[in-house]
Amino acid sequence: MSNKEKYDAAFIESFSLEAGTLSPDLAYNGVPEWDSIGHMGLIAALEDAFAISMETDDIVEFSSYAKGMEILKKYAIEI
Q1: Which has the closest alpha carbon to 11: 53, 44, 36?
Q2: What pLDDT, on a 0 to 100 scale, did the predictor assign at position 42?
Q3: What backbone phi and psi angles, to 5 degrees, belong to 64?
Q4: What SS3 state is found at 27?
Q5: How many CB atoms lie within 10 A of CB 11?
Q6: For residues 76 and 40, what is the distance between their CA atoms, to the nearest angstrom?
Q7: Which end of the chain is more exposed for a tag (fewer CB within 10 A), N or C?
Q8: Is the pLDDT of residue 21 over 90?
């Protein structure tokens, strides 16, 4: 599985999205499931998928699908 597939899978599974509905414009509170609790579930899924531990500042700044890709670059993960 590619990094992009792992990344997308974390969003799809965390927020119960259909694969075809995942949008690069997706942002925090963009779907009802992406609330504070859903956010932590997404972070946990990403940490598991990529075997990383994100810093608190990065977790707080992870506000959109696009921003997440940018943040993961800090952990040497290219999406």
Answers
A1: 44
A2: 98
A3: -160, 165
A4: strand
A5: 21
A6: 21
A7: N
A8: no
Cα–Cα distance list, 57 to 20, 53, 54, 60, 64 (Å): 30, 12, 8, 5, 14
Inter-residue contact 52 to 75 (CB < 8 Å):
yes
| C-beta separation of 43 from 54 below 8 A | yes
Report the alpha-carbon distance of residue 20 to residue 36 in Å, rounded.
24
The set of residues, in sequence order, having a beta carbon less than 8 Å from that of 71 and lying 6+ positions away, is 54, 58, 61, 62
Give residue 3's Cα distance to chain centre: 12
> Model-level pTM?
0.94
Which two structure tokens, joined as six digits, stand for 1?
């599985």
C-beta of residue 42 within 8 angstroms of C-beta of residue 15: yes
DSSP 64: B
When pLDDT is averaged across residues 20-47 and rounded to a whole number, the result is 95
pLDDT at 45 over 90: yes
For residue 12 the two structure tokens come to 């799809």
Six-digit token string for 54: 């994100």
